[in-house]
Amino acid sequence: MTKPGKDVKFRHRGSASSAKGRRLSTSMSDVSENPSEPSRSPTRIEELVKATEVEPANQSEYEKKKANFVTRTIWTLVMIAFFFFCMFAGHIYIIMVVTAVQIISFKEVIAIANVPSKARSLRFTKSLNWYFLGSFMYFVYGESVIYYFKHILLVDRVLLPLATHHRFISFMLYIIGFVFFVSSLQKGHYKFQFTQFAWTHMALFLIVGQAHFVINNIFEGMIWFFLPVAMVITNDIWAYICGITFGRTPLIKISPKKTWEGFLGAWFFTIIFGIGFSNIMSRYKYFICPVNDLGANIWTGLECKPNPVFIPKQYSLPVPLPDGVNLPTTFSIAPMQFHVFALATFASLIAPFGGFFASGLKRTFKIKDFGDSIPGHGGMTDRMDCQFIMGSIAFMYYQSFIAVYKTSVGGIIEAAITGLTAEEQMEVVKILSRHLVNQEVIPSKVLEYLDGQLKRR
Amino acid sequence: MTKPGKDVKFRHRGSASSAKGRRLSTSMSDVSENPSEPSRSPTRIEELVKATEVEPANQSEYEKKKANFVTRTIWTLVMIAFFFFCMFAGHIYIIMVVTAVQIISFKEVIAIANVPSKARSLRFTKSLNWYFLGSFMYFVYGESVIYYFKHILLVDRVLLPLATHHRFISFMLYIIGFVFFVSSLQKGHYKFQFTQFAWTHMALFLIVGQAHFVINNIFEGMIWFFLPVAMVITNDIWAYICGITFGRTPLIKISPKKTWEGFLGAWFFTIIFGIGFSNIMSRYKYFICPVNDLGANIWTGLECKPNPVFIPKQYSLPVPLPDGVNLPTTFSIAPMQFHVFALATFASLIAPFGGFFASGLKRTFKIKDFGDSIPGHGGMTDRMDCQFIMGSIAFMYYQSFIAVYKTSVGGIIEAAITGLTAEEQMEVVKILSRHLVNQEVIPSKVLEYLDGQLKRR
């Protein structure tokens, strides 16, 4: 294996100069192919020159890069293995992974704005950040648990008041933090303290808020979590491959290395990947069923009536084929495939902006990485910037276009029994019976008999 | 009328040196009463000295203050008149007032962080702020309208898709702004642009987010809007009165002029005021009914079954009275009075921190007022800082402890007919009948007859 080849592979895995190499990866790396292009990125060219000259010039730097590459590869494999283990072990484990990711990301983002020398004289700034994280997580996790496990919470005497007053309790927790923040304002530190406050809110909104949607995706079914995650990674890889292979035409100013060819190619391959991958996952109820049992894992499986988007439907061509062309005019396609098209488009078009945003932040604070949480990879936030925004989009899309409106016999019975008096329940029985008589589902005699019996009391 | 007297009155109406005079108004103004107190506020003492010496020393400054006082009084009366006119004219008018207040406040808050010289070279910073305001308002107003006017929206063909996809549409509007923000990042301006971005989000969260709750309060019934507003104003006035009359013991460090006496006195009088005021409002359905008709005003009135909190209940003393004491041991009290106690406590204890927060911001940016939207009063934000946080608390409290869980016979019938198949509806009739038989509300014969009839089909 030649050295430049190794170098390319190294960049491909995510790049050491994180902000530049990783996300702006629709790159026209092969600058020599493109001599007419004005050299907007002297740094990158210098890097390439260095990379090709690395052996004679600087053996030890090459050794260092190689060591880093090995660390990085090992940790990538470890993370992938761990991720799959958790995903198959059960929804609760993958939720724990997302929770850990969000806490580490929050820590990293908070740290870059917290100038320690100043913070030392203010005793509570750091604790307050963690307090806000705790109370906001209490709020969003509570919301999810209440929404998905109502049937368990509402029959538990201890948990019931926590559930019915959840928003008030959460808001009070926030208000306590707010009051404490105002009380801790110290003359001469106002600007620093208010900046911290605003920064914490931004981090809560962008990290914890969006992780909340990712967790809701998991509750709705593993596919709604894993498909967007896999699409973002796929898009990243194909943008890089198409970029170095065909990249010619610059796409946007902000990122001079992005090309139309890389962008369109990645989009195309993300759709192809999404169709195939969703097709495979659709066959396993463990992936498509919402979590009605937190003890489920890949071996026990899950049971549910699948969402109709997974069931193939007949579609006909809107116009007849010309004479002589002997092809089928009807197709059997699961509606999911159309949704995959939309999700792949979001993963290709919008999600990268999460990465650009993170890059901009890093440049603002003149840092290379958000942290060193993952050996060889930099910070957690560096790996997750595009995942958060993609998770939110997937959640909103799912809720708006895919989720089935959840009226069930059980839900209606529950609402009637818990919320109505016996007289009102009788009213429901009578009105619904009359409706069924009108619809000619049951004979009108039933209604007469009911009325007679109920009057006699 | 003597000059010092005028000066006191002038301060009472809200003070010109806004941040200091208005909200920190539990003041120990009468410093001479308190010679042992360490003089933590030399500025204030100097002011007082100036005020008593104002006539011989500086005639024109006194004239200026007097003119400002007249302007201020006139505008106070104009605003009060306008407020009452809108409140009686109908809910839609008072919602328009709140909307105007939030837009003006947003403008003021955005303006103080926007250094114009820098912004001029960046074309879209200002437009982007307004875009975010617009899309966030679209989101929150849409949420309210959908929640309270579902029955109108769901039967309208044009509005239905806007309602069912509301969150997705709003989120996409936000994402468009986000993508545009990232695209508009310019080298050398990163710090300024990210600060603007964070600042806009804070303003949206603290102003538009909280105004959303205030508007929901209006929809729930005029009393839930007007009572908190009036309580904050009452508390403000009484804190000032009790502070200058009894003020001795300093309360907290952040605001050396706050005293325990002023705080406790204001709390007491706010409770008294709240009990009387809510008692009066409870008698008018225009105030206690939720808005089921947007065309209603004080003359047409509103109709509804009042919330049970407004209906007096019998309460008994938990312990018997000692022998010989001949007093009634049962009382008839509307539960609302207990809720008034809680709300008054929030208005006295928590709401002032909204004002402290705003003061801190003003000191950070070294400005006297947020703007000059109201002649003689300073900015809109200066008047509203405590109202926003009180409105949110009132909303959360109302939702958690007062709102009646809205299960109705009509709602259940609607859910069953629109969401279930005929078979499932039959299932509901049977299960509910069986429940009523189990509860011995109807004879078991009914169930047997129903089963027989339904099987025969």
From TrEMBL, chains A, B:
Residues 1-44 are annotated as: Disordered. It is a multi-pass membrane protein. It catalyses: a 1,2-diacyl-sn-glycero-3-phosphate + CTP + H(+) = a CDP-1,2-diacyl-sn-glycerol + diphosphate. GO terms for molecular function: phosphatidate cytidylyltransferase activity. Belongs to the CDS family. One of its GO terms (biological process) is CDP-diacylglycerol biosynthetic process. Keywords: Lipid biosynthesis, Lipid metabolism, Membrane, Nucleotidyltransferase, Phospholipid biosynthesis, Phospholipid metabolism, Transferase, Transmembrane, Transmembrane helix. The chain crosses the membrane at residues 74-94, 128-148, 168-185, 197-215, 221-241, 262-281, 338-358. Residues 24-42 have a biased composition (Polar residues). It comes from Sporormia fimetaria CBS 119925. Its EC number is 2.7.7.41. This is Phosphatidate cytidylyltransferase. Pathway: Phospholipid metabolism; CDP-diacylglycerol biosynthesis; CDP-diacylglycerol from sn-glycerol 3-phosphate: step 3/3; Lipid metabolism.
